[in-house]
Amino acid sequence: MSATEKKQCCGCGACMAVCPHGCIHMEADEEGFSYPCRDTKHCVDCGLCDQICPMRRQNPVGEEETGFYVLYHREEEKRLRGSSGGVFEALCRAALEEGGAVAGVAMDRDGYSASFQVAEDMEQARRLFGSKYVQADTNQAFARLSELTKEGKRVLVSGTPCQIAAMQSFPGLTNEGITYVDVVCHGVPSPKAFVKYMKELEAQKDSKVTEVSFRDKSFGWRNFSLKVTFSDKWEELRSHRKDPYMRLFLRDLILRPSCYSCPFRTIRRTSDLTLADCWGVRGLCEDLDDDKGLSLVMVHTKRGDELLQGLIESGRLTGRKLSGDRVLAANPSLTGQPVIREERSACFEALDRLTIEELAGQYAGRSLKEQIREKISNVRRRLRAIF
Ligand SMILES: Cc1cc2nc3c(=O)[nH]c(=O)nc-3n(C[C@H](O)[C@H](O)[C@H](O)COP(=O)(O)OP(=O)(O)OC[C@H]3O[C@@H](n4cnc5c(N)ncnc54)[C@H](O)[C@@H]3O)c2cc1C
Questions:
Q1: Where would I find the H helices in 169-301?
Q2: Dist CA 88 CA 97 (whole Å)
Q3: Pocket lined around ligand 1, Cβ cut-off 6 Å
Q4: Over the stretch 210-254, which tens digit does the pLDDT of each residue have?
Q5: Neighbours of 218 (CB within 10 A)
Q6: How much distance in Å is there from the Cα of 223 to the middle of ligand 1?
Q7: CATH number of the domain at 67-188+255-334, please?
Q8: pTM, whole model, 2 decimals?
Q9: Which of 13, 26, 25 is nearest to 55 (CA)?
Q10: CATH classification of 3-52 is 2.30.170, yes or no?
Q11: 163 and 60 Cβ atoms separated by less than 8 Å
């Protein structure tokens, strides 16, 4: 695949899943992102793969006016488990209580990779909570969702906007029984960089990674941390501002090429609900902020609205409506594209040569301003803990 073609592939895997002749498989390139490879010998040129591709199609735009809310889970433990305000937990519980299933992204047992999984009870759903900052494999998701809907099961599906667009156009998945929830997405980082980082940590600690939380709130919601747990129970906890992998991710150096010109960064979406962090709280809803996490929820459909109102009325979620203009200004990933910096290609070229720590040191150094800002935020946090 050429560099231009790669920019137009989000790696959702819909083409592979739809191919009636099994001619397409996904293969990782040198940056670690998966792309479709076609077996030209057996391909009959039916064109289904092109028709399903969410990056090639003219995707529909949400028809209804979008509503904006700041919300959080009333139960603190559940709120702390979520990346932002724990709204996804409440959505999952409601779906499961009605006898439905939930599909979302969980870390695999190896602790290195993320993939779509289906949960049919709260115990299984727990693995879906929290953002995984690595591109998730959709592997069997399309087939599994098709099976569930054929059985007449109602399903709540959550994922990045490109994955949701792919699922919404997949044969059999357009039906009434599916509630689609997407996230506001900064972009997805390279699975190869993440595996490399985990292996380097394992070598340093001489212990196996057993669990990864990308949004641990021990230092607060805003100063979220990457927490890695090892088989000998050792925990490595690093603020996203210091952790080398998170720095490379948040400086847009290891994102998938298609994320820099993502067509899904829009306000009107075809999902029922969009979840995000309610960043920029200072001007928006400062009175609600206790640094335990606030979700921004965007409502796009009647079904999404009914679901959300039910959770507010039952007292599981609390918060209030927000004005759209102010939300837009506060959350850059909602509509803005990350910038491809010159260092991106140098960074990937050095990925096999340097450690993740060295890469971040070389390409994602911390400015004096950042270091001062962090010191101030640490002092604030300590003062809050005392008073
Ligand atoms: C890769 C990524 C980038 C994001 N970037 C931003 C951003 O820039 N700005 C912002 O405001 N919000 C962003 N979010 C959304 C935010 O981090 C929270 O996921 C969202 O606010 C929901 O939080 P919650 O507390 O309600 O539930 P949580 O329990 O945190 O919800 C997690 C949900 O996210 C889904 N998910 C987790 N990891 C992945 C993945 N790798 N691929 C697809 N789906 C996944 C799970 O299926 C689950 O449904 C991003 C999320 C992801 C996954």
A1: 191-205, 244-250, 281-284
A2: 14
A3: 82-88, 104-105, 114, 128-134, 136, 158-160, 183-186, 188, 275-277, 279, 295, 331, 333
A4: 999 999 999 999 999 999 999 998 999 999 999 999 999 999 999
A5: 13
A6: 16
A7: 3.40.640
A8: 0.93
A9: 13
A10: no
A11: no
How many residues make up the chain in this entry? 387
> What φ, ψ does residue 201 adopt, rounded to 5°?
-65, -40
d(CA 23, CA 43): 6
Starting at the edge strand found earlier in the chain, the sheet holding 67-73 runs 114-119, 101-107, 155-159, 178-183, 273-277, 295-299, 67-73, 317-322
Interacting residues of 173 by C-beta distance below 8 A, sequence separation 6+: 142, 145, 146, 149, 167
How far are the Cα atoms of 81, 128, 286, 289 from residue 75, in angstroms, in the given order? 10, 18, 20, 15
What would the pLDDT profile of 186-210 be if each residue is shown by its tens digit?
999 999 999 999 999 999 999 999 9
Query: Phi then psi for 192, rounded to 5 degrees?
Result: -65, -40
What is the radius of gyration, based on Cα positions, of the chain?
21
CA distance 378 to 375: 5
Ligand 1 pocket: which of 115, 182, 183, 212 to mutate (most atoms within 8 A of CB): 183
Same-fold call for 3-52 versus 67-188+255-334: no
* Token reading at 260: 């820099």
Q: What is the pLDDT of residue 297?
A: 96
What is the structure's pLDDT at 59? 67
Q: What residue spans define the domains of the chain? A: 3-52, 67-188+255-334, 191-254+341-381
Cα–Cα separations (whole angstroms), residue 245 to 36, 162, 192: 26, 23, 11
Name the pairing type of β-strands 178-183 and 155-159. Answer: parallel
